[in-house]
């Protein structure tokens, strides 16, 4: 009876054990392969013969398609065509588009090579540099913003950016929990602001689009219900554009960093 009960418990444990998604496993494999290749190149050793089709080539081709035609254009068949290969040959490296998109997203987020390490003595400047670098990555690969995110960071390059932020914050008095909260806050801010920048309506919001937008609001918004908006929009200088600029991004980033600096000062005072 005891053995049977133990066996059932073990079986239940196996059933409820969470399995790492295949796409995340692939992202780590691709990252480790890339690090190994860079190490070989740095040591002056020429890598041996490579197979005609590699995971790295598949990812690169898929990213090129997404950059030029959008995420919806990516398929295993189109990637295979771009590589001059049969679709079935891709299955050795990636089994589905969903898995491929996970790997693509992480590869597109890779930090540029040769970045100097963050300086904890200049943590605010270091965090600002990191934020702009990630922001620029989103602008170079806007399709990344269409990829749903779920759960905490779990892919290598995404974690690499978090690692850099934590290194920058290591010289502050913020507690470990507050440092993690700061990383989450900054990462979420960058993603949302990049989404605003790349939104088709906002990104293409020239004079005509701005005029249409504010004329519409002028019809539907009344001072009794929206007094603050109406007062702002009564000033023509506030209705010239609906675009989102680098100054807008820097404004919010400065507010976050100022808040973290105040938290650091409080810690030093204590």
Q: How far apart are the first and last residues' alpha carbons, in Å?
A: 59 Å
Note the main sheet: none
General shape:
flat
Broad structural category:
mainly alpha
Number of strands: 0
Helix content estimate: 55-70%
Round the Cα radius of gyration to an integer and report it: 24 Å
Query: Mean pLDDT, as a whole number?
Result: 85
State the low-pLDDT regions, or none: 9-16, 40-45
- In DSSP terms (H or I, runs of 4 or more residues), the helix count works out at 12
Our estimate of the beta-strand percent is under 5%
Along the chain, the helix and strand elements come as HHHHHHHHHHHH
Describe the protein in words.
There is one protein chain. The protein is mainly alpha-helical. Helix content is 65%, strand content 0%. It is built from twelve helices and no strands. The radius of gyration is 24 Å and the shape is flat. About 5% of the residues have low confidence.
